[in-house]
Amino acid sequence: VVVTVTPPQGPTTTVEVGGFILDTTPPAAPEAIVLIVPSGSPPDVVNLGNVATVTLELTQPAGFDGADILGARFSDGVATIALDPFSPPSGATSLTTPALDLSSLEDGPLVVVVTLADPAANEVAVMLPGVTKDTTIVSPLSATVPGKDTRPAGTVNAANAADAIVVVSLPPGADGSEEA
Description:
three-stranded antiparallel beta sheet, five-stranded mixed beta sheet, 12 strands, mainly beta, 180 residues
């Protein structure tokens, strides 16, 4: 790069500053992003089993060189919790982020964004859709065992356990995903 300066009162001066590299290409986005959930939990749900240790698993494109900085943030629309940016190891095709505690975020839909920035500060951002935080414990209003044939109501024993029915009444606001 050559810079030429021409002041109004004097001679023109030319200075060679040196070369530079023009880099406007963002890094390749992760090929897959998965919210890690405890065994038996619904996919893409932050619940009491993982709210204090939320992690993401990313699949990096082939040729990942480790020079990029990875970040992630979770938001409930009011507050945001962000992962401290870090450089994944060179050549890593699959990696798990450090755990985040999302306890302070409100229950409901979460916006999850993973970012990769290269050394030239070009950034790619990828959203992980459909993540929900649900840590509310729904207490049943009542649970009853209705009578059947010769079995009196409220009674379950070895002879009738196989056909016993338990009726659970949930409070208003229960979303129907609860299990009894």
